[in-house]
Structures are given as structure tokens and as C-alpha cells.
């Protein structure tokens, strides 16, 4: 039996040839245009100087003029170099390597640490939050790449390293000459990795020998250095101490394997990492912290708030895509934007986005002022992720069947939201962090 796409010539003498069958029909007078070519296409406004429709309460006005100039340059780059390539990269499950040089040119990675040509003072959390939202608004995977490098990897060295270690590694990472990854999660340890970490490190003279496995490591396939967290099982230790190590990718005994078949954050290159007798010098041990899991926790406290900004950026895009489509798509003789149920969905999306942006801004402002807590960042992540899940679903609903096509934008955000919902602390874990803070009772159970 012939395949559905094949043309078979019937066995009769007057049947037209395959060439005749494939030839286009002569254009007839008054013929209508191809109905598939004039369908509305959801789109984001990528003008670098204009306000976003989703910033309904104009939160961006809280930024200073120099911060707005940084944001304008970022928006311009995202429009010219990132937006045109992400749909194809997402579909092919690949990372566009040229983005590394592009982001290096923006001089953003070192801003949180005062390592930028723009200023030697650390950037405000409020501003860096807008940076993450802007990137996630165009592509959540690209924001994950930037956040893992500039937040988790560089943040580990900044928070837990000595002054000498910070001087050694952070400047080239700020210039993005050295790309970082963060190895905490394990095959058997996600939310409970603090108490069940299986990767071990033992001291042998002036070296440490690391054995174990890490999973879901963003940037893991191409990072130059990976921050590996491991239990100290050296002689005389009780195995409860947790230490961080800067491990170069080419170190003997370290192997990486790309995780294939993802349906979310497909541009992000997540890896399984195996460490078999990996040896690093003691100078690669992050020795400026406490030597407990609290060191890794301190890094996560810094970055969990960034996840709320990523969730907000995804909502901004979803709302703007759905709105643009609703204004152009016609049914029953008029744009669907004029129908009550569509307006209800759009307003709910805008409300979710606005509430998330407000919470992300306030959480960052508290940290900038020297306040904030684990519970503040946990609530921001939990709430923004919850709202994001509803917002992307409503956006897909507004765009209808066309919303499942990757090239129409909303499908990519709909899929990527699932990974954002889980990483940087699941809803359940963040809920228990906040619950403990407000009640004084821990509901964590081992």
C-alpha cells in the first residue's frame, strides 16, 4: 500500500501524469488568496525603547536612567539576535552557541558582583530582576543559561569562596570567557538532597577525590567549570559536612551526558554528570563558607528570587502574545478581543502578571535594603509559578488550536512553564518554607 504522501497514478490510460497532477492550476480571475497565508500570528513587540503592555502599573519606572539604558541595550540584543533563533533552537533541542559571545558583549554577568565596565558597585536586585524578566519574556531557556552561569555558579564562588578564589574565577566568568554550571541535584536527591546527598569527597593530602552523580545540571554539556557539592567523608568526618568544589570540565574522571527528550526548556542543555575518582586540588575547595549544606542554601536563597522574575517574564510574553492574537483573529464577523469570555481570560492573565511583578519587585527591594528572608523569596517563587501556570494555559486557550504550533510562540512558553514550576524549589517545598515561617512549626517530614 502506498504511503499517504505518495501519488499513485491510477491504472487507466486517460489518467493524468504525476507532473500534470502537481502542476498549479491556472490563476482564475477573482481567485481568493491562500487562506493559510493570512492567518493572524501572535507577536511580541520588540521595540527596545517602548514600555511593555504587560507592565500595566509601570513598575519599570522604578529603575534609574543608567539601569534603563542597560535594559534598552539588552532589549535591542534580544530583538536582533535571540528572538529570531529561539523557535528553531527549541524545536531542534539545541543551544545557539553564538549567544555566549552576545551576552558577553552586554557586560551583564558581572553586574551583581561589581565586576562590570559600567560600575564597581553591585547592581540592585530590582534591576537584575528586570534583566531576568526581559530575557525570559523572549525565551525562558536563554534566561536559564544566563541565570545558572551568573547566579548559581558565580554566586557559589562569591558567597562561599575566599577573596583569593573570587579574584581567580569571577573576573573571567564575568567576561563570560569561562562559563559555569551548578551541580547540586542528584539522581536520587532533589528536594531532599540536603539530607540524602550521595556524592562524596574525601581529602587525600593536598587533593580531594570526588565520586558520585549529578542530574539536571544546566549548562552541563558545555560549561568550563562546574560547582560540585559533595559530602565530606574524609577520615575523622561524620559525613554530614557538605563542601563545594570548582571542578574544570576537562578533569579526568568527569563525564557528562546530555539529557535527551525533554518537552520543556529544550534550549537549556541539561546534563547527567558522573564523577569517578575526580581529583581536584584543595585550592579548588570553596573554603570561605561554613562547610555545611548551609553554604549551598545561601546560594539558593540568592537565586530563588530570580526564579520568580523568570516566571513573571514568561507571563508577560504569554499575555502580550494572546492580546496581539485576539486583536487580529476574527470570528463571527469581528475580532475575538471584543467577546466577553476572551476579555475575561486576558484580564485574568494581566492580573496574574501584574501581581507577580509586584511581588517580585517588592521581594527584590527588601533584599536591596538589607532585609528579606528565605520565606519572602519562597513565597515569591511559589506564587509567581502558580500564576504563571494559569497564565500560560489561558494564553494557549485564547490562541486556540493555533496555540500548539511552536512558531506561534505561546506553545513554547506553555511548555517551558512546566520546568520553571518545579525548579528552584517545588511548590510544595516553598509552601513548607513559608508555612514554617508564619506558624513557627516545621511540617517537613523525613
Any idea of the CATH topology of the largest domain? Butyryl-CoA Dehydrogenase, subunit A, domain 3
Radius of gyration: 25 Å
**Residue windows where pLDDT falls under 50 for at least 5 positions:** 1-13, 19-23
Q: What does the main sheet amount to? A: 7 strands, mixed
**Element-by-element helix/strand order:** HHHHHHEHEEEEEEHEEHHHH
Instruction: Work out the count of structural domains.
Output: 3
- Quaternary state, please? single chain
Count of DSSP helices? 12
Assess the beta-strand content as a share of residues.
5-15%
What is the CATH architecture annotation of the largest domain? Answer: Up-down Bundle
Going by CATH, the homologous superfamily of the largest domain would be: Butyryl-CoA Dehydrogenase, subunit A, domain 3
Q: Terminal Cα separation, in Å?
A: 59 Å
> Which structural class do the helices and strands define?
alpha+beta
Descriptive overview:
Strand 2 (200-204) and strand 3 form a beta hairpin. The chain contains 12 helices and 9 strands. The radius of gyration is 25 Å and the shape is globular. 47% of the residues lie in helices and 13% in strands. Helix 5 runs antiparallel to helix 8. The protein has 3 domains: 59-178, Orthogonal Bundle (Butyryl-Coa Dehydrogenase, subunit A, domain 1), CATH 1.10.540.10; 181-291, Beta Barrel (Butyryl-CoA Dehydrogenase, subunit A, domain 2); 294-438, Butyryl-CoA Dehydrogenase, subunit A, domain 3. By secondary structure, it is of the alpha+beta class.
Amino acid at each position: 500500500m502506498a504511503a499517504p504522501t505518495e501519488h499513485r497514478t491510477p491504472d487507466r490510460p486517460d489518467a493524468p501524469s504525476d507532473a500534470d497532477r502537481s502542476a498549479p492550476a491556472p490563476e482564475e480571475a477573482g481567485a481568493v488568496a491562500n487562506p493559510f497565508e493570512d492567518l493572524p500570528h501572535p507577536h511580541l513587540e520588540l521595540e527596545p525603547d517602548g514600555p511593555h503592555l504587560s507592565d500595566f502599573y509601570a513598575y519599570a519606572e522604578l529603575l534609574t536612567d543608567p539601569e534603563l539604558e542597560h535594559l534598552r541595550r539588552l532589549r535591542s540584543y534580544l530583538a536582533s539576535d535571540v528572538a529570531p533563533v529561539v523557535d528553531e533552537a527549541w524545536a531542534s533541542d539545541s543551544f545557539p552557541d553564538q549567544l555566549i559571545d552576545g551576552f558577553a558583549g552586554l557586560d551583564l554577568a558581572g553586574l551583581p558582583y561589581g565586576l562590570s565596565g559600567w560600575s564597581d558597585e553591585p547592581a540592585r536586585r530590582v534591576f537584575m530582576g528586570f534583566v531576568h524578566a526581559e530575557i525570559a519574556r523572549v525565551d525562558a531557556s536563554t534566561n536559564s543559561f544566563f541565570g545558572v552561569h551568573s547566579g548559581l555558579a558565580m554566586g557559589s564562588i562569591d558567597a562561599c569562596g575566599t577573596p583569593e578564589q573570587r579574584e581567580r574565577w569571577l573576573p573571567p566568568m564575568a567576561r563570560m570567557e569561562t562559563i559555569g554550571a551548578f551541580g547540586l541535584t542528584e539522581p536520587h536527591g532533589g528536594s531532599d538532597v540536603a539530607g540524602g546527598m550521595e556524592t562524596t569527597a574525601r581529602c587525600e593530602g593536598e587533593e580531594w577525590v570526588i565520586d558520585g552523580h549529578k542530574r539536571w545540571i544546566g549548562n552541563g554539556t558545555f560549561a568550563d567549570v562546574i560547582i560540585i557539592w559533595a559530602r565530606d567523608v574524609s577520615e575523622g568526618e561524620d559525613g554530614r559536612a557538605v563542601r563545594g568544589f570548582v571542578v574544570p570540565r576537562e578533569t579526568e574522571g568527569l563525564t557528562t551526558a546530555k539529557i535527551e527528550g525533554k518537552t520543556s526548556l529544550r534550549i537549556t542543555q541539561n546534563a547527567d554528570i558522573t564523577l569517578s575518582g575526580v581529583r581536584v586540588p584543595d585550592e579548588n575547595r570553596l573554603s570561605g563558607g561554613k562547610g555545611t549544606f548551609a553554604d549551598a542554601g545561601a546560594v539558593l536563597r540568592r537565586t530563588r528570587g530570580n526564579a520568580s522574575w523568570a516566571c513573571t517574564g514568561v507571563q508577560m510574553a504569554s499575555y502580550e502574545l494572546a492580546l496581539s492574537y485576539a486583536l487580529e483573529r476574527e470570528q463571527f464577523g469581528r475580532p475575538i478581543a471584543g467577546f466577553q469570555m476572551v476579555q475575561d481570560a486576558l484580564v485574568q492573565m494581566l492580573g496574574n502578571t501584574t501581581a507577580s511583578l509586584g511581588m517580585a519587585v517588592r521581594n527584590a527591594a527588601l533584599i536591596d535594603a538589607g532585609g528579606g528572608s528565605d520565606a519572602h523569596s519562597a513565597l515569591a517563587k511559589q506564587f509567581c509559578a502558580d500564576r504563571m501556570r494559569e497564565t500560560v494555559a489561558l494564553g494557549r486557550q485564547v490562541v486556540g488550536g493555533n496555540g500548539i504550533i511552536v512558531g506561534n510562540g505561546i506553545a513554547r512558553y506553555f511548555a517551558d512553564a512546566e520546568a520553571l514550576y518545579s525548579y528552584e524549589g517545588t511548590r510544595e517545598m516553598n509552601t513548607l518554607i513559608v508555612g514554617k515561617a508564619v506558624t513557627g512549626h516545621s511540617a517537613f517530614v523525613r
